[in-house]
Amino acid sequence: MSTSTVSPALLSHDQPIGTDGVPAVAQADVFFPYDGSVIGTAPVGDASSAARAMDEAAAVLPAMAAATTGARRALLGDIHDALAANCTELQRLLVLETGKPVIDCAVEIARTLATWTAAAEEVSRMTGETVPLDLQPLGAGMLGYYTRRPAGVVVGIAGFNYPLLLASHKVAPALAAGCPIIIKPSPDTPLATLLMVELIRDVLAAHGLPRAAVQLVNGGVDVGETLVRDHRAAVVSFTGSAAVGHRIARDAAPRKVVLELGSNTGLIVDDDADVDAAVDAVIRGGFYANGQACISVQRVLLLPTVAADFTRKLAARLPEVIVGDPRELSTRVAPVINAASAARIASWIDDAVTQGARIVASNAPAGTAQGSPAGDPATLVYPTVLANVPHTSPLWCQEVFGPVVCLETVETLGAAIEVVNDSRYGLQASVYTRSLASAFAAINGLDVGGVVVNEIPGFRSDIMPYGGVKDSGIGREGPRWAIEEFTTTRMAMIRPA
Predict the structure, then answer these.
(1) Average pLDDT over the chain, rounded to whole?
(2) Catalytic residues
């Protein structure tokens, strides 16, 4: 796979704004995290570009809101087909700009396509209900019902780790709801999203709908702030850090926000668990996407009867997590998104060890420093498992977003649930157990948005309601639930003349 060229569709210096695009304010290089090479350039906008995009989106809102249910379903189906026809190129761009192993990028493509299919299916389910107004005397003889209507312009801001999937979980439901949307990708990973948006805009035009219904503005903080603060943004859907999410919520108030803000995900191994299956869960769920997934395994709580066996078996299997070039099918961990992230993760590991944590296993060659291995990219962090990490350490209480797993032994299932809950985050968690009682104790006791039993906490079906509590955010994604977030109820109350 060459790192020297990008898709011809991305060679334009225009931003996908309005009908025909507008000239970019600047061009920015996009880098391959594995070796730092430039893989292409992307158009960059500024606050004026964002304001122009909002003008264009507001102008086409009536046309999108008027699109029939059949037209919207057909549109989404054809967008799916256009993306499927270009999946090889989209996957290639994902590997190059994210640095994720190709196996993880293939999963992202498959899930992206599934999301568009699900959104198309949900269009016909955007129904309302009748309301018995005559329950009160003043409503006697009246008919009442509500429908769901497009909320207005949606602003979608996506993270770098799953750029196509995260953008699709915003764009597909917005179009299903009849809303124009403006996407702001991460400046680190704009290329695949740019291609996707150009494909979507072509399908919109083929259906006689305005290309400006989907626009993209790549840029810095000024772009995001301009979009979020504009009163015409009816909903802001953001995936990223808690700190940025808090700022977006303040800037957007009182308008609706949907925030998915990450976690320090917990996995509990009960005393009757299948230890081999739980170890496999950490191997699969702790290091995929280079650990840069908000529901990857970060904290593992072990009951005393299984702790020693689990720890020994996990250490023995860690070499299976092959480190290398993300373009190779055998690679399971490649460099993280940039050198700053690698340095942060390495410093958190060093800090935890200084405070008394013990490295149980690492794929780093003997004598190699974490985060700055001799002869390897400065963006590489080797898969690492630690025990006895202090709860005050960032490695335990913050979101690592890297290939690092922390182990701790606790006395009871109840204590394990308490430790998982003792966190500012609450996105998803899992429990490995053969006991139905233990499974329901976890389901009912864990303060998270989703509980997974006998599977990795990173399990996510793209048709389920997905989101968290506490600092993990507010609102839910998944086409059905995102459509609800992007629509408002309109009540009709009729007294026959």
Answers:
(1) 95
(2) 260, 294
